[in-house]
Amino acid sequence: DDIVVTKNIDKIYPNGCHALKNVTTNIKRGEVVVIIGPSGSGKSTYLRTLNQLETITSGSIMVDGVTMYDEGTNINTLRENIGMVFQSFNLFPHLSVKENVMLAPLKVSNRSKVEVEEEAETLLTRVGLAEKINIYPTQLSGGQQQRVAIARALAMKPDVMLFDEPTSALDPEMVGEVLDVMKSLAAEGMTMVVVTHEMGFANEVADRVLFMEEGELLVDDIPENIFGTV
Ligand code: ADP
Ligand code: ADP
């Protein structure tokens, strides 16, 4: 039951940079796939093509049975199904934590305000921030802000969550609290695609690890075969 399928995708940026070369991947429902590789190898570009933050030059992408770029495929519907968490948290500073989480579902879903608010409180409790719902992002630590960003992405009830180096901007003591939230999401069966340098997380949580280099997918294997068994 594949939820994300990319077939022979290539990405050439307008400046000529060939960031993805013939990348074919399939991600099953409920799988946690971790992408590793040197800086500039195309990891972030790959992730961004999955919700069409980047267009592809050739190949095809299917998410949840819907083919991107097909006539009649609504990009907004497709994006609502894909949550994304970035390296920098990108929260709205003038909105409270709870308002940040409520914003997208209020805009695009038919759910009532009360329903969206209750859901936001539930999600913020789930990421350990029940006490912080009414304060502003600038009053939070980096790790707390990133947990708000995760709750905000979850508020759209996505089928897939994408994480682009979610702990890279954090002070070391805050990395664990964000990885713990990601681990619990994985345990609940969320489909996740994670670009990270956290090899412990990859080894412990990933069902599969993809290794990229110079735009190519060189390895697609279970963590045991990549990191060895301990
Ligand atoms: P990674 O995430 O593995 O560090 P990226 O996907 O960010 O790699 O980048 C892959 C390659 O594409 C790099 O050579 C990078 O410089 C280039 N690149 C990324 N974004 C752009 C862009 N917007 N325009 C041109 N080149 C880009
Ligand atoms: P990351 O590896 O996390 O994507 P980068 O530093 O490679 O971070 O890229 C930061 C931003 O700059 C991204 O939006 C990327 O698309 C853009 N970028 C990266 N390389 C280039 C490039 N050669 N030309 C134009 N934009 C680029």
From TrEMBL:
Entry similarity comment = Belongs to the ABC transporter superfamily.
One of the record's GO molecular function terms: ATP binding
Q: Could you tell me what this protein is called?
A: Amino acid ABC transporter ATP-binding protein
Q: Does the keyword Transport apply?
A: yes
| Membrane topology term | Peripheral membrane protein
Domain ABC transporter residues, every copy: 4-230
Q: Which InterPro entries match?
A: AAA+_ATPase, ABC_ATPase_HisP-typ, ABC_transporter-like_ATP-bd, ABC_transporter-like_CS, MetN_ABC_transporter-like, P-loop_NTPase
Pfam families according to UniProt: ABC_tran
Places the protein is found: Cell inner membrane
Q: Which UniProt keywords apply?
A: ATP-binding, Nucleotide-binding, Transport
* Gene3D superfamilies with a match to the protein in the record: P-loop containing nucleotide triphosphate hydrolases
